[in-house]
Amino acid sequence: MRLSSLPLAFLVVFFPAIAFASASVLVSDEMRNFPHLAEEQGMQAFIAEGKGPMLHMRYSSDKPLTLEVAFPFRGNEERVSYNPLHVLTIKELRAGEGEEIELDLTDSPAWSPLQERFLVRVLGPNGATVKIHDIDIEGSSVAAIFPALWKGLSVGEAMLLSNINYLWGYRALGVNVSVYLGILFILSIALLLVRSTKSQISNIKWLLSLSLLFLLLYNLRFSSDLLAISAADLSGWRENHEYRQLGPTHKIIDRLREELRTFKGIPEVAVCLSLDDIYFKQIRYHLYPIPVVRAEDPLEHATHFVLLGTEGIGDTENGIACEEGQKLRPATLLEDFGEGSAVYRFDTSSLP
Amino acid sequence: MMILLFIGAVFLLIVEGRFLALFMTQGALQKAEGWALGFPLGTAVNALLFYFFTISGAPLTALTVFGGHVVMLIVLGVFNHVIPGSPATASIRPRPTPAGLELLPPPLLLRRAGSMTYRVLLILLAIATAISLLYGIVHTFLPTFYYDSVSQWTMRAKISFFDQHIAFDVDELRGMSKPQYPILLHSLQIFFALAINNWSDLVANSAILILNLTSFLAMSVLLLRNISKQLVLLVLSTILTIPILAYHLGQGYGDLSLLAYLLLAAVALVSSEEGKNTRMLLLASVMVGAASFVKQEGLVFGLAPFTVLLLLLLQKNSWKPLLMFGFLPAMLLSLLWPILLLSKGLPLSPHGGGDLAIAFHSEGVSEAFRVLFASGSFGVHWYIVIGLLVSVSLKLFYSSRSALLAPAFAEASAGRRRKPFILILLWGVMILISALAIFLATANVQYLLNGQTFSRTMMIPLALLLLGTLGLYAYTDDHEKTPQAS
Asked: Which of A38, A219, A225, B369 stands 20 to 30 A from A316 (CA)?
């Protein structure tokens, strides 16, 4: 095991601690949800080296921590590339002295028995004192292969906005499943062709059956994802008026529509967000032809104010704004949707 | 009420498109083929109407748009019923039998039964196809979701609907910034919004879904001229189960509609070449023009390869019909939109000069291979198409009747069967080469490396290659059963 880029001090502990296997979450499972309002955290990152299916870490901390493990496939000490969807996360690592945890690396489809480098990130509240005493990659890779294969196949497509452009597919042991199936298909054809007589080659109906079989093998998995996401999207919309990672966006749109139906004056909605631009574009599209602007611009003409995944500045009495340096304008809270999402109506008296 | 208006508008486009199909093909279509082509062709007519309203400055209101459609309907209806030899009666003529198959006993035309294993696998794949369609239908009932839908495609249609003119914004202030996008899909969405006199996400997304589904339906119906029902189901299933394509059935951008029109053009070209029917060639060229009205890529993936194929067909055909019914209509329709852009002083590409910055980007090669063969966008489809292609080639080689690379469409000697599906195969190869050139030899390499457009572009050559290969397979299968044909 080797640690690099680790500025944290090591502490020798004299009493044994019991390691607890912690349940990790794969980032791809979380990215379909509306992002939580994250508080600012300090972070230390380092590369852990070794082969094996289990990460064992001993640490001390006065505050609960978050541990993230990524699986680099390219890069050097300064910069590594990894798939963010395949990162394993353990939240709320308990505070304490000489705590031990074990993380099953095979929970990520990026894990492979050949993987030797892991990017480990420890995140905690600013000011937390954290000591990593020891970190090991251990266990038998051979024994872990079949469970890892199964777990990899069970991880579905992330079903994100970006999927319209690109699908990640299914990975097992760090390799895309289409590679396994494709090579197997080509080998099957080669084998059958080599063993066939000329007359058998002429009758290639068997080839169609073979092609169908391999298409089916892949689509069996993909179709199950299509069905699952269709059901989840439909029920999410019908029951909660929510659609994948958009969270309360459509509730906000509906609230604004209801408000603007009776609003006297020329409406303009300013959106303040710390999230991806798509949230702004969603609100702008669905409210059109009502003008929707980014709240980073001057708020002089805005009649309504939307916070999305951010807390903004100020309060309703003294005035609110999106970011420092903007003029605070008094407003009335129309509805709070939680997680830093709310709709306000600016006091019309504050309009120029 | 809204649903009745929507259904009425769908029916209007179908009837109008059917009239146009019958008029263009002059009796070369069967009844079912005319109806199946109705919606895709009606959508193309609608786009042309919007185009002429745009250049004339006429407002896009229910009165002008539906007035225009009624006029078109009357004109096409009159042409179909008054002009001698018009298809009103001719459409009941028996479908021309593909050349070389006329000596087959009728049951053989439909007999491609295959083994029980093959049938079971095909049924299972058809179920997977149904799931893809279900995904598309379910997501039509959900709000518009994707990036370019809410910022370019559907957003532009919505802005234009409220403006009563096609919007040409370049600054994104109102939500769109790429006026270069051709207007076939926008026009269709606005057409239905005008029909219900309101903007509805459900209606806007349904319009695109109906276009895509009816285009695939029309392709299947036209394919029945050449191959068995079972093989048509196989073609449809292999195409609709391309993972990234299944995803695009649910509120995709224009790529799927572009592909659908290209497939229709390709199948019409095959019918034209097989039946030596110039009217089907006209249908193919109109579909090429429609593809260019969906996305500008239609020029590169539609008009350019179509022109090359027409040049190849010159070997055994006289130039006049190829020019009059093939090249000229396709070129005219395809260039209408770029001419409008130039007349408005707009650049043809939304990507600036990057499209013409020619330089080989070796860093994109491994990424391209990874996306095609080791990503979820295509699953195992590229492996399958390669395997099929190799096997069909071997079969042709061993059967010694003709080599795959011979210009089969040129009928080298009497008695040699033509294999017009090789035209589709060539079309797919040309798109594949030009797409790879665009992504590896221009600044568009960025859209390969960041994953934005490469996958959805590559589903176009893949679908054409699948269609071409399976069609060719059908013909090689004919050889086994048609001694007269050899």
From this structure: A38
Tens-place pLDDT, residues A71-121: 988 766 667 888 889 999 998 888 999 999 999 999 999 999 999 899 999
Asked if the model's pLDDT at residue B337 lies above 80, the reply is yes
Of A182, A201, A237, the CB nearest to B373: A182
Q: Average pLDDT, stretch B157-171?
A: 96
pLDDT of residue B286: 97
Report field, pTM of the whole predicted structure over 0.80: yes
- Using a CB-CB distance cutoff of 8 angstroms, which residues of chain A are in contact with residue B128? 215-216, 219-220, 222-223
Quote the pLDDT of residue A203: 64
Q: Where do the H-state alpha helices sit in A159-296? A: 177-195, 198-202, 205-240, 249-261, 277-287
Smallest Cβ–Cβ distance between A216 and the set B128, B399, B454 belongs to: B128
Phi and psi angles of residue A126, each rounded to the nearest 5 degrees, phi first = -55, 135
A282 contacts B456? CB cut-off 8 A? no
Tell me the two tokens of residue B148. Answer: 């370019």
Q: Which amino acid is at B434?
A: S
Q: Look at residue B2 in the predicted model and tell me its pLDDT.
A: 86
Q: Stretch B414-431: mean pLDDT, rounded?
A: 78
Chain A residue with Cα closest to B151: A281
Cα separation, A231 vs A225, in Å, equals 10
Neighbour-count burial of B105, counting CB atoms closer than 10 A to its CB (0-12 exposed, 13-18 middle, 19+ buried):
exposed
Query: Is A215 touching B (CB cutoff 8 A)?
Result: yes
Cα distance from N-terminal residue to C-terminal residue, chain A: 65
Asked if A163's CB is within 8 angstroms of B375's CB, the reply is no
How confident is the model over B103-130, as a mean pLDDT? 69
Q: Looking at beta carbons, which residues of chain B come within 8 Å of A244? A: 145
Candidates A74, A153, A166, A198: best to mutate against B (most CBs of B within 10 A) is A166
Residue of A nearest to B149 (CA): A285
Residue A19 pLDDT: 52
What was the ipTM of the complex prediction? 0.87
CA-to-CA dists, residue B483 to B396, B398, B403, angstroms: 15, 16, 18
- Which residues of A, range 232-271, sit inside 8 Å of B by Cβ? 233-234, 237, 243-244, 246, 250
Nearest residue on chain A to B174, alpha-carbon basis: A291
Closest chain B C-alpha to A341 CA, distance in angstroms: 19
Mean pLDDT of A232-248: 92
State how far the alpha carbon of A145 is from the alpha carbons of A114, A170, B53, in Å. Answer: 11, 16, 64
Mean pLDDT taken over chain B? 87
User: Considering CB atoms only, which of B124, B138, B477 is closest to A216?
Assistant: B124
CA distance A130 to A94: 12
Q: What is the pLDDT of residues B236-257, one digit of tens each?
A: 999 999 999 999 998 888 999 9
Chain B: closest CA distance from residue A225 (Å): 10
B383 vs A182, A229, A237: nearest CB: A182
